[in-house]
Fold each of these.
Amino acid sequence: MKSRMITLAGFLVAAALPVLAHHSFAMFELTRDVTYEGTVMEYRWENPHTHIIVKVDPGPGVDPATVGTWDVEGGATNIMGRQGWTRATFKAGDRIKVIAHPMKDGATKGASLFYALMPDGKRLYHDIARPKGEVAAQ
Amino acid sequence: MRLKNVVLLGVVVAASALAQTNVPDLSGFWERKDEFGGGSFGGTLERIPRAQVKQEVIEEAKRQAAAQAAGQVVSFGSKWCLTGSYPFFMQHSAAWDLVQGKDEIVLAPEVHTFARHIYLDGRKHPDPDKLIPSPNGHAIGHWEGETLVADTIGFQGGGGTPGGGRVTKNAHLTERFKLVDGGKTLAVTYTWDDPTVYLKPHTYEMTYHRSDPATYAFEEYCHADDEAQGGSVVQPAQR
Amino acid sequence: MNILKSITGLAVGITFLSVSAFAQNRPDLSGVWELRFDSKNVPAAALTTAAANENKNVQFEHDLHAVRWCHFFGVPYVMDVTPIGVTQNVNGKEVLVTTSVRNPSRHFYTDGRPHPSKETFDPVSGGNSTGHWEGDTLVVETVGFSDEGITAIPGGGHRGPNSRLVERFRLINNGNQLSVISTWEDSTIFAKPHTYEYRYYRAPKGTELREYDCNAADEARAKYLTPATKAASK
């Protein structure tokens, strides 16, 4: 009974916040866009979040701060699906270029996906977030 | 004289029929767009005016936030796939489908909650002693020109609104749905009235963009028995 | 002047109606429809040998697990959750089926679109449904099922990724009943197409769908459903 009360209390708090995704995103630097260009190690198309594990190797023009293996977290499959993503968009071994918001703590190699830049120049957005000015321009 | 009355009656009947049929077609999938933040998680929602709530509501929110910060609250609704009460799905980054029937309009979300029925057939809300509180409440609507006005009571409570409001069993919601920008967007003005929460009615507007006409409904499945439901790159994991 | 405006409005209204489902002489299937004791006519399905030899406890376990954890029930089970709501879009492009359980609505797209590509469509509990009218009958085809939810099919067998469902919705008995004839095809499950009929009754005027919630964190629920799961596997 006690644990049920705690569960409900937690939901009340969560629901009161303007945070509507699976978890809070306060730990991401949402105003900072970082480019991660590398190789897809895993492409996990699943709920509650899609995950793209990206390995960035050192090299010319590569920001050393981005080198390493990153867990780039996307949204639920329905949310990403409506933006044009599918379970076949990427597979392990593919080259990838994603723009994402890194975690604030800097220690965890995790980032929140903003969009992937496809070879044809098209952007595949994570969800309904857009760069400033783009919505008004539509 | 009699003929004139018959003609007028005919016009009134025709106008009455038109009131139900010659209305804008609001139907289709609608979704938010957000260029001020993180889409699903803030952004535009954080720009919604703060609700003016009673002091005891603020104190209760502080107590709960402090408890959560202290680790006393260890469970999360999303881990358990709990139902998102209205207006949860209207703020979500998943689209919702508006289906416009002859006697009702239905808003069909794809997240884990219920379809919302807005009855347009002139029915009233149930008597208070027969009203069963529910996640979406009981909604009736009518047209005022090109605006759909929905009136909702009977919420089970427990959720929140943008701007820091709370939804309780005493909440009364008035919504005004109107196509703007040549039908490319749908503006919804929400007004929450609840004397147990607000010092004055909490009003805000949200804009929804028409989805690609070829889009279709997805299903946002949620598995509380899946360990991943409580985890992400973000720590600590939910329990 | 007002009369003139009304007449002008009437012309606009007729124009609007001419593109609606109703002006095309489509029946309006909208309403709240309920199952009664005599609603179902379900013969036993002719199963393939492999399907007939499947362990029925596995199916039971699978479906009970979905109930225990508040998963989406999916099709066809939601058609058993009486009453169902049918809302026919006046623009003729979609028919929606809703229920009282926390389950995605069924969307029947009647705008002529094809199903999404199999290569990229993620199978779901309700599949993907398109519909068209054959006279006064709405014919709905659904494909793209997952194994999410309650997968058992009335009469035997279960849905899967290869399943195809065709449903024929038609008003009968002066519009007081809705006949839904369902036919399942799946060569891995059925030896021949499996057809059954549900005849729903129009619910009394004013009947509304309730919202029966499901809480997976409810300890009483877990306690009630888990032992049954274990017992069934013995």
Amino acid sequence: MRCRLGPISVLLLLAALVPVADLFLPPELALSEAVRTVCVYAILALGLNVVTGYAGLLNLGIAAFAAVGAYAFGILTCEIYPFQLGFWPALVLTLPIGALAGTILGAPTLGLRGDYLAIVTLGFGEIVQDVLKNLESITQGMQGINPLPAPSIGGQMWTADDERKWFYLVLGLLALMVAGVRNLERSRLGRAWFSIREDELASRAMGIRPERAKLVAFATGAALAAFAGALSASLLSSTGEPSNYDFQVSILALCIVIVGGIGSIAGVLLGALVMVGLNAIVLAKATAWMAAQGIGSQGNVLLSPNNWKFLIFGLALVIAVRVKPDGLLPPRLERGRA
Amino acid sequence: MQCHGVCVQFGGLVAVQDVSFAVTRGEIFAVIGPNGAGKTTLFNAVTGIYPPTRGHVELHGHEQVEPVTPRVVMWVASAALAVAVGVVAAVNIAELWKAGVLDHYVYEQPFPWGSAAAGFGRAVAALGWIGGVLPFTIGAIIGGGAAWNHFSRARRASDHIARSGVARTFQNIRLFNELSLVQNVLVGMDARMRTGFFSALFRLPRFHSERRASHREAMELLAFVGLDGRADEAAGSLPYGLRRRLEIARALAGKPSLLLLDEPAAGMNPTEVGGLMAVIRRVRDRGVTVVLIEHHMKLVMGVSDKIHVLQHGRTIAEGTPEAIRTDARCIEAYLGSEEHG
């Protein structure tokens, strides 16, 4: 078998060097915390990529599943609830919980396609937020659930100072998820998803069961999103308020998938780096750097790059889609092995 | 395969009316007729894309309908139960949470699981009509009804018919254009594969052995239709004549006992038609029964064992190529009668 580094491994290896680079950078330009956010978004977008990229089902409510994951993690671990599981068992449990939530939404909506499904998932996203806000006795309403545990390896729980450990943990989990999604993509199931995306009638005539494959896609995507939600909640030590999981998050995940290349894992990773990195790294660091240099601290809103965020974000989207409509790293075909 | 009095109606339009025929195992059977005679509609009825309005299609002596097994009953029942429990929980969630968790949990004290479960049980028992029985019944009806409705619609669907050994190609080629040739063939093989979600996710040994076997078989099929040199290209990049061949390879991948070819020679040049005839004969020699729709008379007369002629959705003749060639009504259907010129 040939052994060649694909774009996926290159991106992951590069990311692994970030804490090393941080040793040489001034503290206000340190990258690892921002790259952590990129990784969490990459997991979320990987989930969306399964649903939208592989199976071709437009899902505008992926953030709702992240919310389900975050709150499930919160309820399972936080000490104001009786369950009080540790970080690891709770994190693993969010996968089946997310899959269950995906199945519950997926099962009644299997017959819908395209625009109709998009509207249903959009509605679902709003419902989940409202439920989380109003079910105060369980979810603490607008306060969010906190504090949440950090992982502990070897007995000692990590603190916010263990930045490098956190970084490698998140990166490692991302790599694990990438491997899982890749395995599914290069299997019978992945091909069933692609064939449904290409031509549902023909794939049905070949004996594929579209309902089943779509449901599995929905559940897998939801499980990944829930995992991302739980991970981000643990990073913040709080689920945050329900509106942290609003439509904006879903749209950002969709942008990552589209800009990176629909149906391409490497594309999702690069897309997350570009879309989230722009926000969390370039603009935030530029602002921090300018503040450190004493530029623009006099209250001139136009001088702070952070305030240009949405303009730059929108422009980047327009340019990316106009110049590379297939995405930065479009998917490659599976090769035959004789 | 047998068709018994198949009718397909779209609103007031009768596309196929009372067509009956029987195809014997191992023969090449052609369905011909002028444009709009209902040939493709007949194929769609056979493969379950449209259910026949009347009549039925039998394969191996029985109709292809997914049976109601205990597993299906259990599946429908558990969907009903799950939705019912879900509705009851949703209606009473705050109350049940309080009875099961909040009333028993004191901060940083160990949680009394036993008494909490008992409290939860009492709360469930006390739900009464409005909180318990009514939502449960409504949920069970919705869940069970939806699951049954879904099943009854799916039981005659074309995926089930395909899985019972009927493969087809399409008149307006329907390949998966963005997938490679190998992937197209592998999709056709899906019904015979056994790898589940978890063996694919963790790449268990079973996944590897099945992948090796299926890739080898797919390459053999591509070689069979003469496309093995282009296995990794996207299907959308193939020239027209070769796409037909790929469709045949994809259809054969499911090891069907019956292969339906919808105008396989459309748009082909004479050399390509010659190649196609050879492919069709070789398919028959593999033990596959072939039914084809075709306008290309040289091909039909050259390969068919039996020909069935349709016009305006009705059968006008059936017989061997020689008999059809001289049948007055067929000549009229194709060339027009003397009066109409």
